[in-house]
């Protein structure tokens, strides 16, 4: 597979290039050092997968997540694995808020195991999702806080709608799936936002927060990486 690697630390980037190029499953690795270079490299090279640091220039905040979201429309089907130094459940869920298909979140401490890293790249290339086990643990901690919390207030239908939102489905797609009108879906979503105590604001941000609560409440497997289809 052809990989675009985005990492602003030259030392780590060179180490990852050396690991990946020596693996028989990797045919080519193209380097990028910031968000603009990453986007340009994907447009130019049309790789199979992207491996990107979650924080890169210019802001060193969430460039990896923003790139992954950009590629949903500019390069549909492209697998993306982001790397982070921290088990940040909220950032991981922001990564999959538009749909978990072909998305992965790993801690940088995993990159020394090239087989595990390549397995994650293969998984997202196939359209699966890969979440680091320590992030799964963080989600479990969220679940413990919310077991008796706002998600318990939702009706069965509202949970169903929220579950579809978590897959990245649009309102029209949810309506088609549930055989209801788009207006009915909007009413369910507004009710969900209200019951989850999500303040008024940009709809996309409220959806991300709702998905965070839903996934935290839904539970997760134990100390092995979670993989699932979108």
Description:
With 230 residues, the protein is α/β, with parallel strands linked by helices. The protein is 51% helix and 15% strand. The protein has ten helices and seven strands. It has a seven-stranded mixed sheet, sandwiched between helices. Helix 4 links the parallel strand 4 (79-84) and strand 5. Helix 4 (89-95) crosses helix 10 (203-218) and helix 7 (156-166) crosses helix 9. The longest helix has 16 residues, at 203-218. The radius of gyration is 18 Å and the shape is elongated. The two termini are 21 Å apart.
Which helices and strands occur, and which strands form pairs?
Blueprint: E1 2-6, H1 10-21, E2 28-32, H2 35-45, E3 49-53, H3 63-74, E4 79-84, H4 89-95, E5 103-107, H5 114-125, E6 128-131, H6 133-146, H7 156-166, H8 171-178, H9 182-195, H10 203-218, E7 226-229
Parallel strand pairs: 1-2, 1-3, 3-4, 4-5, 5-6
Antiparallel strand pairs: 6-7
Helix pairs in contact: 2-3, 4-10, 6-10, 7-9, 7-10, 8-9
